[in-house]
Amino acid sequence: MQFIDLPAQQKRIRERIEAGMKRILDHGQYIMGPEIRELEAKLAAFTGSRYAVAVASGTDALLMPLLAENVGRGDAVFVPTFTFIATAGAVALTGATPVFVDIDPETFNIDPASLEGAIEKIIAEKKLTPRGIMPVDLFGQPADYDAIQAIADKHRMFVLEDAAQSFGAGQKGRKAGALARVAGTSFFPAKPLGCYGDGGMVFTDDTAVHEQLLSIRVHGQGADKYTNVRVGINGRMDSLQASVLLAKMDIFPEEIELRQQVAGRYDRLLAGAVKTPRILPGNVSAWAQYSVLHPHRDKVIAKLREEGIPTAVYYPIPLHMQQAFAGLGYRQGDFPVAEKTANEIFSLPMHPYLQPADQERIAEVITRFS
Ligand SMILES: *Cc1c(COP(=O)(O)O)cnc(C)c1O
Predict the structure, then answer these.
(1) Which of 20, 207, 228, 278 has the fewest CB atoms lying closer than 10 Å?
(2) CA distance 64 to 70
(3) Which residue owns the Cα nearest ligand 1 atom 7?
(4) Long-range contacts made by residues 322-326, C-beta under 8 angstroms, separation at least 24?
(5) Final residue of a domain: which of 215, 249, 283?
(6) Which domain holds residue 20?
(7) H or E stretch covering 78
């Protein structure tokens, strides 16, 4: 059994992928080929965003909007402590300080009440300027953007959506990637929409931000490549990755629908045996992960492993306890919800091609244990 079955997906689209790769071998535009613009147009339309900018990774898709916001030393950007390291890493790379916030115990997303408290504390300390908030749509479920945007507006801060796990998700009729002024997503192979390497995309409706992103993507270029108006990065996506994503987009809406069915089946099979995920009314998850809680997580995982069933733990260590951020002075106990979640959470195999029989076997092993 596979945790994420990319071979099953590849079987469906292999010919389309090979045709796309051949086209690039023929035209030779490996960097910024026509596939890039085609993909940007397609995904902008999919999310309902005015602009999409294809980039080299999900990490760059978060770093580049922060550079566009001119975030740097002395600035505070608020992030959940329970997320992948790249969310806070992107902030730290600009010289700004990531300020950690606890999570909601039901959705595992940034908790608006804790966020408000963290901002008040930074304002009272008068050391850092509160500049922005980076909610993460963890495991594919959008964060609480109504509450977060209201807090951001009150304090005149920007919101940057970390949609790395939520491409394909939605909230109240809007798509993930379009839930804040700027959003970044990732196409790492294991994400809901993945390429065959690294890739990412930034979405925005803002023309000025879009122009800045285009410049930052190519070393801060101005009118041409050798006129540089700011310091940027090499943040371009390869044409080959764009062609893989174009092939995968043909079946992506259907895959998102299949993920809903897989999640619904898990919900029914596992009710009462573990704490199953809660998707809030108005949200559609992209189901990047199906993550459950159990007080004896490690024992359940060991049983599943004996039966040949793969699992993963996202995330065993909250970011405020990571050595990389030891200098920020956080301590064990600072974020009790995130710390408890990190001890009890684990993720089950989740992909559009997971068979009901496999899900029944997984549930049988877990139910027998509980
Ligand atoms: C995967 C991920 C990223 C980084 O994306 P990469 O493409 O691996 O650079 C950022 N934030 C979150 C929440 C992620 O899951």
Answers:
(1) 207
(2) 10
(3) 58
(4) 322/85, 324/85, 324/89, 324/92, 325/88, 325/92, 325/98, 325/100
(5) 249
(6) 6-249
(7) strand 75-80
Whether the CB of 285 sits within 6 Å of ligand 1: no
CATH of the domain at 238: 3.40.640.10
Pocket test for ligand 1, best of 79, 165, 198, 285 (most atoms within 8 A of CB): 165
The strand pairing partners of 180, in sequence order, are none
Q: Are 46 and 155 part of one and the same domain?
A: yes
Can you give the pTM of this predicted structure?
0.98
Last residue of a domain, one of 223, 249, 275: 249
How far away, in angstroms, is 83 Cα from ligand 1 center? Answer: 9
Residues 244 and 256 both lie in one domain = no
Q: Are 149 and 229 found together in one domain?
A: yes
Check if 84 has its Cβ closer than 6 Å to any atom of ligand 1: yes
Pairing of strands 158-162, 182-186: parallel
Strand partners, 74: none
Q: Is 177 inside any structural domain?
A: yes
Token pair 């956080």 is found at: 330
Nearest CA to ligand 1 atom 6: 58
